[in-house]
Design goal:
By secondary structure, the protein is an alpha+beta fold. It has four helices and six strands, in the order ααββαββββα. Strands 2-1-6-5-4-3 form a six-stranded mixed sheet. A hairpin with a 4-residue loop joins β1 and β2.
Length: 124
């Protein structure tokens, strides 16, 4: 496993432990976040974009199934799941994240997934 893969595995596990400070602490100030729903630039904008999602979940988790590093890119195939706070509905989504890493800093994340099962659980 490369240092970049280890960094990504570490920050994703921090998210599993609700340690948002560790995850967001590794993002560059000009971090670029591309999701199926929106694109934002900047660490602070990313935190604000994520806050509403995590506020709706009483529990969330990630399980890395596979990772691949090439140059400054790390691709992570994983499952993301959780429990919706207001109705106790659970969901699981397959995700492919492509991180760009510069040393100990994450400069970008492209998130690819079909979030329909998560959205359905939140609206139930």
């Amino acid at each position: 496993m490369t240092d970049a893969q280890t960094l990504i595995a570490t920050v994703l596990e921090a998210l599993n432990q609700n340690d948002f400070d560790t995850f967001y602490g590794h993002l560059s100030e000009d971090f670029r976040y591309v999701t199926p729903l929106y694109t934002v630039t900047g660490k602070d904008a990313t935190i604000e974009a994520d806050r509403p999602l995590f506020a709706q979940l009483s529990h969330h988790w990630r399980q890395i199934d596979r990772s691949l590093a090439s140059g400054d890119k790390v691709a992570i195939w994983m499952r993301f799941g959780g429990t919706v706070a207001h109705n106790a509905k659970t969901f699981e989504v397959e995700v492919c994240n492509i991180f760009t890493v510069d040393g100990e800093t994450i400069t970008a994340l492209e998130l690819h997934a079909d979030f329909s099962s998560m959205m359905a659980a939140m609206q139930a």
